[in-house]
Design a protein that fits this description.
Elements lengths: L4 E8 L11 H6 L18 H16 L5 E8 L2 H11 L6 E6 L6 E7 L4 E10 L7 E9 L5 E8 L6 H24 L6 E7 L16 H8 L2 E3 H6 L7 E2 L5 E2 L2 E6 L3 E7 L23 E6 L1
Parallel strand pairs: 1-2, 7-8
Antiparallel strand pairs: 1-14, 2-4, 3-4, 5-6, 6-7, 8-12, 9-12, 10-11, 13-14
Helix pairs in contact: 2-3, 4-5
Length: 299
């Protein structure tokens, strides 16, 4: 990676409190039944040996990717999980961690790990959506130590569109929460920094026929606010699969969106040698029901 590149990844790591197992025996023996979306009621959070092994693999994937910022969604808020992530990441590419749990007692939330040898943290702000789906977002203002270029990173996880209300009202309000808070924060600065929005947006990009206009209302709002998909900027396509949903559908739900003046030189799904266009077989990848999206930004 070039010295004046910033490498960011977004990764929904699948909180063990939401991860239902077919059965412990089937998981261990890797039988053919779908591991991620079994009908059984057993939760991974009840099996320490399983989630410990999986999250050691999660952190190994992050640690080996030469990252500057990791935006994590569905971080499980237990003292044990914080210890595991910090033991495996702090001092091993990352030097600082920020956490934000969802409101109303939700067991998961967001985490951001930052390489503070390369970046100075100027400020951070917790954005609480509260009654808007009890979602949250992290806003972190950083400065590159070599060039003093400033950048705002937003990490978030939006509601899945279960119904028309979610699709047409709730998710739009969540997107507005992000852009309104960004506008308010930037208004108080002397100089406007570049902005990156990373996270599991629980959406699929699709274009209107013979148009670049996005049909998804959340992405349409963010595009109209001046953001572009880093993946599409590099690959000239939104044809990727980053998530195998609870509806057993392979979709591209995870995004690193950048303000239009930024230049993106690389955008891939991890692991890199696995096909972006389909969900991988479980003998190839079973770290999460999402794949990380990595973007290199030149500055």
């Amino acid at each position: 990676m070039l010295s004046r590149q910033l490498r960011i990844v977004t990764f929904n790591v699948l909180a063990p409190c939401y991860h239902r197992l077919a059965s412990v025996e089937q998981h261990i023996s890797e039988q053919k039944r779908n591991f991620w979306h079994a009908e059984a009621n057993e939760l991974e959070s009840d099996h320490k040996e399983l989630y410990t092994e999986r999250f050691n693999n999660v952190t190994e994937l992050l640690r080996n990717s030469d990252l500057d910022i990791a935006c994590i969604q569905e971080f499980w808020f237990t003292a044990e999980m914080k210890r595991l992530f910090e033991k495996n990441l702090i001092g091993k590419g990352f030097h600082h961690a920020l956490y934000l749990q969802r409101t109303r007692g939700r067991k998961d939330g967001l985490a951001m790990f930052i390489n503070t040898e390369k970046l100075e943290i100027v400020a951070s702000k917790d954005i609480l959506f509260k009654d808007v789906g009890h979602r949250v977002a992290q806003l972190v203002h950083v400065r590159m130590k070599d060039t003093h270029t400033e950048l705002i990173i937003v990490n978030t996880h939006l509601t899945f569109p279960h119904n028309d209300y979610d699709e047409n009202i709730l998710r739009i309000e969540q997107a507005n929460k992000i852009t309104d808070n960004l506008t308010q924060y930037i208004r108080e600065l002397e100089q406007e920094p570049h902005v990156v929005i990373a996270g599991d947006l629980n959406t699929v990009y699709s274009e209107q026929p013979e148009s670049d206009e996005c049909m998804d209302k959340v992405l349409a709002h963010l595009y109209k606010s001046g953001f572009r998909s880093g993946y599409k900027m590099v690959n000239n396509s939104h044809d990727f699969v980053s998530h195998f949903s609870h509806k057993n559908e392979p979709v591209g739900a995870d995004y690193v969106l950048v303000s239009s003046e930024l230049n993106v030189s690389k955008a891939v799904l991890l692991p890199e040698l696995v096909d972006d266009k389909k969900w991988p077989d479980k003998d190839v990848y079973q770290v999460s029901d999402h794949r990380p999206v990595l973007v290199d930004i030149n500055y």
